[in-house]
């Protein structure tokens, strides 16, 4: 059984988890850039900041893409349904708030006329061939 981490150790671990420029996000950017798509990063558009700070913004197309981690955003895959045993109430409440915030931000974006696509971290792990994901991205943008 693993040793329990002290609150200071847990805090240090959590502080190293990135919210921007993650490996899945960089891969989506690389796929799209190679196909000739140009975008702005992290919610910046001509009119200012967008709700939720989407990872990729295609302002001319009025489309945005979020690249979400399955655990943090409570995806319905195995990783997203993992429930930590330590401090379970805290994590459950935190993940519920994140999912509710995601839904609210998606609704705000759609109300402002934006189309939204969410790409999940597990989509990169289950396939060594990224052509299916690339086709989904291109289909969304065209």
TrEMBL record:
<dbReference type="GO" id="GO:0004519">
    <property type="term" value="F:endonuclease activity"/>
</dbReference>
<dbReference type="Pfam" id="PF03852">
    <property type="entry name" value="Vsr"/>
</dbReference>
<keyword id="KW-0227">DNA damage</keyword>
<dbReference type="GO" id="GO:0016787">
    <property type="term" value="F:hydrolase activity"/>
</dbReference>
<comment type="similarity">
    <text>Belongs to the vsr family.</text>
</comment>
<comment type="function">
    <text>May nick specific sequences that contain T:G mispairs resulting from m5C-deamination.</text>
</comment>
<feature type="region of interest" description="Disordered">
    <location>
        <begin position="1"/>
        <end position="20"/>
    </location>
</feature>
<keyword id="KW-0255">Endonuclease</keyword>
<dbReference type="InterPro" id="IPR011335">
    <property type="entry name" value="Restrct_endonuc-II-like"/>
</dbReference>
<keyword id="KW-0378">Hydrolase</keyword>
<dbReference type="GO" id="GO:0006298">
    <property type="term" value="P:mismatch repair"/>
</dbReference>
<protein>
    <recommendedName>
        <fullName>Very short patch repair endonuclease</fullName>
        <ecNumber>3.1.-.-</ecNumber>
    </recommendedName>
</protein>
<dbReference type="InterPro" id="IPR004603">
    <property type="entry name" value="DNA_mismatch_endonuc_vsr"/>
</dbReference>
<keyword id="KW-0540">Nuclease</keyword>
<keyword id="KW-0234">DNA repair</keyword>
């Amino acid at each position: 059984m693993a040793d329990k981490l002290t609150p200071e150790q847990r805090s240090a671990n959590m502080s190293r988890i990135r919210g921007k420029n993650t490996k899945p996000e960089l891969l989506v950017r690389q796929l799209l850039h190679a196909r000739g798509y140009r975008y702005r990063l992290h919610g910046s558009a001509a009119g200012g900041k967008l709700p939720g700070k989407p990872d990729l913004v295609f302002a001319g197309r009025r489309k945005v893409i979020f690249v979400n981690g399955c655990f943090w955003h409570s995806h319905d895959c195995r990783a997203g349904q993992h429930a930590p045993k330590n401090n379970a109430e805290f994590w459950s409440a935190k993940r519920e708030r994140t999912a509710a915030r995601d839904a609210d931000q998606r609704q705000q974006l759609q109300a402002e006329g934006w189309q939204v696509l969410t790409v999940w971290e597990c989509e990169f792990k289950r396939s060594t061939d990224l052509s299916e994901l690339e086709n989904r991205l291109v289909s969304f943008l065209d």
